[in-house]
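Here is one chain, start to finish.
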Amino acid sequence: FFWLALNTTRPIDTRRLLPATIEQGVAFMPGEPFFPVPVAAASALRLNFSYAAAAETRRGLATLARIFREALGNL
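Its structure:
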């Protein structure tokens, strides 16, 4: 597992980005549930590569990067 903290000027609720990534065949665990107190937006996520081949990992990371860039552009 990898913990990824997005370097943004404004917090991003990663729960809102999950449906778009799932539509593209990529999933991640939003970071918000892992915080000890409720947060509106954590700009963090957990990634798991346990069963992914190298090519799948590259495709998944590229998909995440594209969707996150699009989301950041809409803030």
